[in-house]
Design brief:
Blueprint (H helix, E strand, L loop, with lengths): L11 E4 L3 H18 L8 E5 L11 H4 L2 H13 L6 E18 L10 E8 L6 E5 L22 E5 L4 E6 L4 E3 L9 E12 L1
Antiparallel strand pairs: 1-7, 2-3, 3-9, 4-7, 4-9, 5-6, 5-8
């Protein structure tokens, strides 16, 4: 029997090589934004969300111009055969602070090609990142599951190790489970990658 792969919805995960070097700097930037900006969160539970222009802050160049992001962009431009004169660039960026008892609710960034999530500060009981399969949950409802995997479950539960960057296709829904820490928030730097003109 021949298998034809119809669609691709891979989740990419990598270590951010400069995490230990820039963590303190970026945490101070998050604190500064929290002091000067209103909470723009209209959807999530017990979560502070910054304005979506933080990618213009020079401190974020540590991420936006890093080898990790540059390599990912080059790979995607080549594998998707992006038109000449176009590239993939960061067009929006913002911070999340998910406080104890809070979570990021299910949503997707439909206007992005990929969404990047950098786990700046991830306490041990901060929960999991959950990415949904694009197929309906009803497709999987009657499958007996002892051990979940990408073939028998409509949700993929991923740990959120501090210092890692996840790249999620913009058409996939994602969320986090409840932050079960007693005091510490989960801090995430989020950014959208889109196909843009050079």
């Amino acid at each position: 029997m021949k298998q034809i792969n119809l669609f691709s919805h891979n989740l990419y995960v990598t270590d951010f090589e400069k995490h230990n070097e820039v963590k303190d700097i970026l945490e101070r930037v998050v604190e500064d934004y929290q002091k000067i900006s209103a909470n723009n969160n209209i959807q999530h539970v017990n979560t502070w969300e910054s304005v979506n222009n933080i990618h213009t802050n020079n401190a974020l160049n540590h991420i936006t111009k890093s080898d990790v992001v540059s390599s990912f962009v080059k790979e995607q431009v080549q594998s998707h055969d992006i038109n000449q004169g176009q590239t993939i660039g960061i067009t929006k960026g913002w911070f999340y602070s998910v406080y104890p008892g809070g979570c990021i609710t299910k949503h997707r960034h439909t206007n992005s090609f990929f969404t990047g999530l950098y786990f700046l500060n991830s306490p041990s009981k901060a929960g999991s990142l959950v990415v949904e399969n694009p197929a309906s949950e009803y497709y999987f409802n009657k499958i007996h599951v002892e051990s979940k995997n990408q073939y028998n479950s409509w949700e993929q539960f991923c740990p959120m190790p501090e210092g890692q960057i996840f790249f999620i296709p913009g058409y996939l829904n994602f969320r986090t489970t409840i932050n079960n820490e007693e005091k510490n928030p989960l801090n995430i730097i989020c950014f959208d990658l889109e196909i843009i003109q050079k």
